[in-house]
Design brief:
By secondary structure, the chain is of the alpha/beta class. The protein contains 9 helices and 9 strands. The longest helix has 29 residues.
């Protein structure tokens, strides 16, 4: 599906990948609704691109329904919905050390937000036999993020749910993509484009936005801004025990290099 003259909604679009994608979609001729938990940030991006802004907490199904309703009223039926909001924060010590509240937060933002959006959008898309759902997950959903079990587990669930959407509704004219970037210079990691310029494995948000629009236009299910992730995933599938050993070695290397598990620095090791 191309973006020209399409109604597009992007969550988590006040900064990072979401903001870059909003700018890219507008350049391609889309009518863009910028949504973010921070309404002021959403409005700033919307003003920049000539779009509309709707604040939304994606943990709340009623707010997602309101977002869909407002965007549809202003821009017409939603053609492309990008469920992009995300978070990350690491864990205090061992793999099960994060609090129940943080596990629940990860589940709500990384999984249920996709479910809520699909509930709101699928009936209309099925009736029209047209529409596109883009769920932004992570390379951690195909592999693992060392030092953040809650993030990794919920991103795996996000990939699985996107697969279910594609399997169930592909024959009904509905496109589905899942985006699995690796390390990106965004506020989530506290990194900037300047950092990306010094390391090949670290991409800018604009790089990922371009990969997403290209992938949606080509109708690809799995969108990998970092193609090497496919190689890592293949190694994992071919010999899981060997892959685990390799990840254990990477964790040890991170501890030796940084004196601990610093998620924002892992890009320097891959």
């Amino acid at each position: 599906m191309d973006f020209k003259d399409k109604s597009v909604v992007i969550t988590g679009a006040g900064s990072g990948i979401g903001a870059a994608l909003a700018r890219r979609a507008a350049i391609l001729g889309a009518r863009v609704c910028v949504s973010d938990l921070d309404g002021a940030k959403a409005q700033a991006v919307a003003d920049e691109i000539g779009g509309m802004a709707v604040p939304c907490d994606v943990r709340d199904e009623a707010q997602i329904q309101a977002l869909v309703a407002q965007a549809s009223a202003a821009q017409g039926d939603i053609d492309i919905y990008v469920s992009n909001a995300g978070l990350g924060g690491g864990e205090p010590s061992h793999a099960a050390s994060q609090t129940d509240e943080t596990w629940t937060l990860n589940w709500q933002v990384h999984v249920m937000s996709h479910v809520y959006a699909s509930r709101a959008l699928l009936p209309g898309m099925i009736a029209r036999k047209s529409g596109y759902l883009v769920n932004v997950a992570s390379a951690a959903g195909l592999l693992n993020q060392i030092g953040d079990a809650a993030y990794s587990a919920t991103k795996h669930a996000a990939v699985s749910f996107a697969e279910s959407l594609a399997i169930t509704h592909g024959a009904e004219g509905i496109g589905v993509s899942v985006v699995c970037p690796q390390y990106v210079a965004t506020p989530l990691l506290g990194l900037s484009d300047v950092d990306a310029a010094t390391q090949e494995s670290l991409l800018t948000a604009d790089d990922v936005a371009l990969a997403i629009t290209n992938g949606v236009e080509a109708g690809r299910f799995l969108i990998l801004s970092h193609p090497v992730v496919q190689t890592y995933a293949r190694h994992r599938a071919q010999d899981h025990d060997r892959w685990i050993t390799g990840m254990q070695m990477l964790r040890a290397k991170a501890q030796d290099t940084f004196g601990g598990i610093e998620i924002s620095s892992f890009y320097k090791l891959v």
